[in-house]
Amino acid sequence: MARRGHSARAADAKKAMPRAEAVIVGDLATIVAAKDVARQVNALGAFDAVIHNAAVGFQEGHRVTGDASAHLDDILWRKRRWDGSSA
User: Fold this and answer.
1) Which 8-state DSSP code applies to residue 5?
2) Is 39 helix (H, G, I), strand (E, B) or coil?
3) With 0-12 CB in 10 A as exposed, 13-18 as middle and 19+ as buried, what is 24?
4) What is the spatial distance between Cα 79 and Cα 64, in angstroms, rounded to a whole number?
5) Which of 6, 23, 32, 66 is deepest in the core (most CB within 10 A)?
6) What is d(CA 62, CA 45) in angstroms, rounded to the nearest whole number?
């Protein structure tokens, strides 16, 4: 099954919630991309509610982002067996 594009999913969300003032679409796979999403959200100003769908699927494969430079214990899952649900 092919993945639906961001704009199609955003249109579906807007259709399901017609009174929503905005739909933000972004990628959280890198720190730079996550900052872009935050910039888009911050540009909206204050809001009363947020509904989001951001997650890592439990069957996701192991990926290392180009900008993962945090110094947390085993952030890159090298010491533990990969577990997409826990990641």
Assistant:
1) P
2) helix
3) middle
4) 14
5) 23
6) 35
Q: Are 30 and 43 in contact (CB under 8 A)?
A: no
Neighbours of 52 (CB within 10 A): 9
Task: List per-residue pLDDT tens for the chain, 87 residues long.
Answer: 345 677 888 898 889 989 988 888 888 888 888 889 999 999 999 988 888 777 667 777 777 777 775 557 887 888 888 887 777
DSSP state of 34: H
What DSSP state is assigned to residue 75? T
Which tokens sit at 30? 């890198």
DSSP-H helix ranges across the chain: 6-16, 31-43
